[in-house]
Each structure stands twice: as C-alpha cells, then as structure tokens.
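[SOLVED] Predicted holo structure with zinc ion

Edit: marking solved, answer below. Original request kept for reference. I posted the sequence and ligand SMILES and asked for the 3D complex as structure tokens.
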Amino acid sequence: MGVGIRNLGNTCFIAATVQCIVRIPIFMNFLNGHKNECKTGKFCCICMMQRTAVSLFYSTEPIVPKEIVGNISLIGEHMQYGKQEDAHDFLLCLLNEMQNQLVLGLKVDQFIERTSAISKIFNGFLRSQIICQHCRTSSNNYEAFFNISLEAGSADSVHGALRHFCAAEDMGNERWYSCDTCKSKQRATKHFTIHQMPNVLILQLKRYGLSNTDGYKISKHVTFEEHLDISSYVSSDGDASRPSQTKYRLHGIVVHQGYSLGSGHYYAYAVDPRVLSHKNGTEFNQFNQYSKRWLYANDSSVSVTDWENVKKAEAYLLFYAKVNTVNSHKIATSPTSTVTKPVSLISTPAPMHATDEEQSFSGFGFSMSMKKVAGINKHTDGTFYPII
Ligand SMILES: [Zn+2]
Ligand SMILES: [Zn+2]
C-alpha cells in the first residue's frame, strides 16, 4: 500500500499532496513512461516524482522527501525550505513545473502546450459565457484549468458549490457589457460551464480568507461523494454530448487541520491502487484500478481506513479521476502490456471536442487505444501498465 513520508519540518503539505497524486492511475502510468524519455540534464520535476513514487511503493520504511524539499524553490520560486506552504499552491506549482518540463526548449504556442501529457491528464477547459440581456446574443471565452476552486462557504456539498460556481452572475441594472450586436453597452449575465472535462478533476474547497486583522478559515463539513457526475455543469455544446464522460471517481483527498493558512497540519486519504493477491501460494502486489481500499496517510504513517471515515473529512482538495464506463469491461488487471514511449507533444492542436477514439482513452487511461493522445502510453491490448 506504500509507505508514509517523513516530516522534515513543515513539510506535511508535500506529504499529503504527493500521497494523493502518485496514487492516481493515469498519472502513475505517465510517470512510468517518463523514465525512459527524459533527456534533460538538469532538475526534472517529473523524474523527481517518478523516483518518489517508486520509493514510496517499494520502501519498507517511511521515505524522506529530501529531493522535493531540496528543490522546493525550483518547483515554486516563492517557496522556501522549512516554511509551511499551501498544499493547493504546491500542487499547482508541481503541475506547472511538470508541464514546463515537457515543453522545455520548444517554441510552441499556448494551445500546442495544452496537448502535452500533463495537460491531457489534468487540464480541462472552462467556458465563460456572457449573454446580452437586450438581444440575447452570447459570446464565449475558453480558459484552461488545472483545478476548479469552489467556495466552501457557499454550500454544504460539492454539488452545491459546483452549482454556485456555474450559476449565472447577474450584474443588476448596470450596463457594463459592450454588445457587438446591439453596438452599445447593455446589461448582461455571465456564467461558467466546464467545456472540456479533464481526465483528473481536482477541486479545491476554498476555506481561507482574509479579515481585517488576520487570515481566517471556514471550518465546516462540505459533503462529497465517492462517485461524482458533473453532467449538470458542462456546456450544452461541449462534453455534455457524451454523458458517459461526466462520471468521476474519488481517488484522494487532502485535508487541512488548523485555523489558518500559515499554520496547522495537512494529511491525506487516498485509494490504494495496489491490492494483495494470491498466486501459486505466494502473495504479491497487483495494481487494480477498481480498488476500494482507502488509506489514511499522515506524514510517516499510512494505515487502512474505510469510506465511512473518509466521508467525514473536512476536505480541502479532492482528486477525482474520470471513469470510463464505455470500455470498462475491457480493462484487465494483469500488469502485462505493450507500451510504447510517450510523446511529449503532438504537432496538431488538441480538438476542443474529444473524438470517440479519445473517449476510449479517458477514465483511468489504461485500457485502450490512445493513438490520438500525446504523452500517454499507447495501450492496444486492453491491459494497463503499472509503475513498477
Ligand atoms: Zn525527467
Ligand atoms: Zn445585445
């Protein structure tokens, strides 16, 4: 099930984040492919994560996160060794740094960048739509995201917070919008929808704010589900056309305990992707993306827990992975596979609307043909490939 990560002094934000992210099967798969691909002579954030994941799953003692801590200012330039950082900030820096690694030295525009493996795993696109209240003409803008930040104070559940996030914002009687059709300033509404769904949907429940004197925290339980369907929050002309693609399963949670951002303690709950099996009278570890075994990871200690405990958590970050309902019957658990090297980039931009072929790649990313997806190992035999 993997081991804990020792606290080197205010490093629990690293431990909690890493314990979640390395257990996401599609990301494990990507890390495994990277080790043969990396050509950089300098610090590589992806290699660092790959080594961390391997030692986390193979060590018998808690691992020491020296490499991450020692390179913290390369991961996020404002981060300092010994300082308690925000796990959400650390996660975004980590994803950005891994993304930068894949496009290092390449002169490509932002759109091409979004076809890298990290983007394919973690990026979704938000659509913000403004509707003129006079002529009803709409205009759309699209923006890539690594996570969606929801107001913990606005709802008692993740669904409620998502509804709040996607609700139309009425700007009252103010004529603030220059409408191209009306050729004048008009009243307008603005609302967000998820236009292209990421393979890994990371939700932040924003619990920190600033009062006149100090930072404060919204400490309340926001309910969340093990299985999340986001079909109510996707654009009607976007991914909603494929309802089977809106289903996600929870793989990890980062919890913050304490009263403010600069203090307190982080720990995590994560699904153990490895299960013990018996073969020929001996026990061995096998990866199983359907594993339901939840782990409680708190610095050096990792122990088995259950959903009844997990669901009570005061979640700060939630890691959901897309479930592939279409081809799930083809997914085998045997760790045998034909794997080709990942490609860092493809030469054509990713389509805003995924094709059927991409649909088959979605979910845990292990199961089927991935010919159109850059940076992900191509699997053609219906099996998945573990990190080992
Ligand atoms: Zn590397
Ligand atoms: Zn108008």
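OP edit: Residues 132, 134-135, 137, 179, 181-182, 186 surround zinc ion (ligand 2) (CB under 6 Å). Thanks to everyone who chimed in.
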